[in-house]
Give the backbone structure.
Amino acid sequence: MANKYTALKVPPKDDLELLYSKNMTQSEIGLHYNTTQKVVYSWFKKLGIKSRIPFKRNQLKENNSSWKGDNATYAAFHYRVEVSRGKPHCCFVCGTMDSTRYEWANLTGRYEDVNDYSRMCVKCHRMYDKKRRLLTNKVTINVKRKK
């Protein structure tokens, strides 16, 4: 039983191989021929064109359509630090490695800078934030939070 996609004539093998060799994906070839990726895949099978192993494209930072840059939430800023610098496993202030939880503490209020964080145990982090609040009369969290 034919539909508007399967009734399409199969393009020449050389044309498909040329587009595929230019690093076009099967979906992009489908857009080129005004059809779907599944139809292009079936053409490849019929013509004996070997498919590439699919790989993830770069979705980091500005390449991600959901990237908010400096307008990100408090949690997103901390997540960026964890992704770029890893999970903290010791306290930079007191040196303890016995705490059950460590956090990335922002040092100056520039939350968007991943290098402006230090590893601290919960106790040292709370003390650090309290001292900073008393010195600057500012709440340490001055970024937009998700509601």
User: Anything to note?
Assistant: Residues 122-136 form the longest helix (15 residues). The two ends are 51 Å apart (CA to CA). The chain is about 35% helix and 5% strand. The beta strands are 102-106, 117-121.
